Amino acid sequence: MIKKVLTAILVLSIVLTIGCTQISRPSPEIIRKAELDSEWQMQQMKFEIEAGADLSILLKLAAGDKVDGYFYLEEGNDMGFNITGNSLIYETKAQGATDSGKVTSDRFFFVAEQAQGNTYDLTFRNTAEKGEKQKKITVFLEVIYPVSGSIFIPFGSE
Question: Is residue 157 part of a domain?
């Protein structure tokens, strides 16, 4: 009887360990969170995205809420970025002739509107395809938004 219980515990622990490593993924590293005054909060984070994958960061906002932020690549040389509510609000494009079509940083600002809903999706994409030279990108992001808003990263958004 004791052997059966120990065997069951061992099997269960192996299944949980293997299962959890299969579904887990690295989450963004929160570098700094701060309340800027009684109305605003700021979060800085860093995250990696593998070739061909993306990462979504969701903001829950009320109509009229303002969001300001910027990002830059710490590692890698090209990425895609867009902001959507119920439809596309903003999409990053390479600036100037010297950038050769590559996006390495951008600044964004938007105001939440009732027509766009209350959830806004900031999507970061590694534009490299699997097997290309650029394997992963590392992104630094800072977002400033009202204290009444919230920010979260959906589990398994790739």
Answer: no
Instruction: Give the three-state DSSP class for 7.
Output: helix
Report CA torsion sign: 25, 131, 44, 55. negative
pTM for the model stands at: 0.76
How many folded domains does the chain comprise? 1
- At residue 10, the pLDDT reads 60
CATH code of the domain in which 113 resides: 2.60.120.380
Q: How many CB atoms lie within 10 A of CB 158?
A: 10
Six-digit token string for 65:
């809420």
Taking all residues of the chain, what is their mean pLDDT, rounded to a whole number? 83
**Which residues are within 8 A (CB) of 114 and not within 5 positions of it... i.e. 6 or more apart?**
63
